[in-house]
Amino acid sequence: xxxxxxxxxxxxxxxxxxxxxxxxxxxxxxxxxxxxxxxxxxxxxxxxxxxxxxxxxxxxxxxxxxxxxxxxxxxxxxxxxxxxxxxxxxxxxxxxxxxxxxxxxxxxxxxxxxxxxxxxxxxxxxxxxxxxxxxxxxxxxxxxxxxxxxxxxxxxxxxxxxxxxxxxxxxxxxxxxxxxxxxxxxxxxxxxxxxxxxxxxxxxxxxxxxxxxxxxxxxxxxxxxxxxxxxxxxxxxxxxxxxxxxxxxxxxxxxxxxxxxxxxxxxxxxxxxxxxxxxxxxxxxxxxxxxxxxxxxxxxxxxxxxxxxxxxxxxxxxxxxxxxxxxxxxxxxxxxxxxxxxxxxxxxxxxxxxxxxxxxxxxxxxxxxxxxxxxxxxxxxxxxxxxxxxxxxxxxxxxxxxxxxxxxxxxxxxxxxxxxxxxxxxxxxxxxxxxxxxxxxxxxxxxxxxxxxxxxxxxxxxxxxxxxxxxxxxxx
Length: 476
What we know:
Layout: H1 2-14, H2 19-36, E1 45-50, E2 53-56, H3 60-70, E3 76-80, E4 93-94, H4 96-104, H5 108-111, E5 117-119, E6 121-122, E7 133-134, E8 145-147, H6 150-161, E9 167-171, E10 174-181, E11 184-192, E12 195-200, E13 203-206, H7 213-218, E14 223-225, E15 229-237, E16 246-251, E17 254-260, E18 264-272, H8 276-282, H9 284-294, E19 312-314, E20 318-320, E21 325-326, E22 329-331, E23 337-338, H10 346-367, H11 372-404, H12 420-423, H13 425-432, H14 452-473
Parallel strand pairs: 1-12, 2-3, 2-13, 3-9, 13-22
Antiparallel strand pairs: 4-8, 5-8, 6-7, 10-11, 11-12, 14-20, 15-18, 15-19, 16-17, 17-18, 20-23, 21-22
Helix pairs in contact: 1-6, 3-6, 3-10, 10-11, 11-14
């Protein structure tokens, strides 16, 4: 625990140092070399290694999958292209379903010793405060969302995984090529600061996010939707008398999301799709004024925004692959299905993918034979939950958020969201999603059928909710 805290402090300190500058120079060199290479070019390989499973991308899905495989004695190599876990504006939410998985893995108590905040109540502002969604009512040991920096979460999981001799983490390893033989992926070649390396394995898993390198190398083309918004991420300081948790403010064609951090607010300023250039051209003062008008309590803090470098633009996307696998290769999380940040589902569904994959692929990996049928089972288990939640979020974006971002419109929350039965649905979907996964025990190698009824009821409730929402939105 002390070692993880020490690493966490070192990462924070490096933010002000030259570490990132050195890494940016390295990535620029990588970029120029990449364009200079030709297909089939021969590289000088420093070494060739063999393992059972290669996981590319040390995000939440990759870290959890690697831990779960390593604890079963399966040799797994986790490759991460960056030199550390520190990224600005990554999702920091650990949902009740994730905390239950951590508990089943024996990690929850130690994980929650780290500083975090608890989100258990979501209430729209002003006149809509009666539409409150209370996570306290969830039947779980963890009736809240833990807000914890993802840097800390990833450092903790990988540190715990290093207790197993079968786990190997390589930072600064940029995968450049897939090794394919007789129509099957047999491994990868990656580049590090000391040159090229080759690793061969029975299975390669891509968990390298929405800009997945492996997805591109494998030639997968996602089916994309077009969300009506982009997000500007920025930070403002916290005051002692500020509220806790999550806030959402709407007005004058603007929408702001406030996420509590330990010493600041992470703020998402929603803008219309493709309008960033107009917002930027209007100037930083116009942005400060827009935030102050929408959130008057922060009017005295907007002067903290002094440069556009303090603002990051996230182009909101949502897509999914028709097929998540090829022989010897499986994609999970955002590499297989990019989730819109509007629903706050990305980390939850990525980790649920990882749990399902570990449950279903442990035995084949231990036997040294992972078939296409094994990989197809993973997609079948996780595809429908993903498609259902994407449909719900897309519907909310297309109707509710589009109305909220219309300066000429008058945005109101649907009144039926305050109905007692309907009000129970958002906490369930936000806390657990559709079909949450659980860690299979030594004696149980299949789904826990006690959860099937709950899952079916949730699906029915989601369907009814969608129909009610569609009926209401037709009237807008």
